[in-house]
Amino acid sequence: MQIEPQLIAWGFALLTLFIGSVFGLLKWFFSRYINGIDARISSVEKNLADIATKAEAAIAKEAAERRELEREFRGLLALLPQQYVARDDWIIMVAKMENKIDAVATMLNGAIKDMGRGYR
């Protein structure tokens, strides 16, 4: 039994056509898959760029708010000595007032004693 060369050529052509079709389909599937991955990657990159832009804006806003708070705090620190008395200063001031009140009380007691002596 001998196979005719024409039959071998047709078989080889059909086999080549089948293998070429399989490779063509594989190439088409992989190209669609790769295009889908590229689309997802570009979408992720776009989302990351949007997030980075929003984060930069938020950071700039927070920095501006922090500077404003620091400015207000420094203003309060500048007003602090004018509006509030330190504890040590308060103690000294109260002690001076007590000394003055004691001195006035002593003078009044002396005056009252002198007046009492004069009437007797």
What order do the SSEs take from the amino end to the carboxyl end, as H and E?
Answer: HH
Overall spatial form:
rod-shaped
- Give the oligomeric state: single chain
**Rg, nearest Å:** 50 Å
Helix content range: over 70%
Low-confidence stretches: none
- Indicate the structural class: mainly alpha
Count of β-strands: 0
Q: Calculate the mean pLDDT score and round it.
A: 90
* Total of DSSP H or I helical runs spanning 4+ residues: 2
Share of β-strand residues: under 5%
The span between the termini is 170 Å
- Main sheet overview: none
Verbal overview:
With 120 residues, the protein is mainly alpha-helical. It contains two helices and no strands. The radius of gyration is 50 Å and the shape is rod-shaped. The model has no long low-confidence stretch (mean pLDDT 90).
SSE topology sketch:
Blueprint: H1 5-83, H2 87-119
What is the compact description of this entry?
With 120 residues, the chain is mainly alpha-helical.
Please give a handful of descriptors for the protein shown.
single chain; 120 residues; mainly alpha; 93% helix
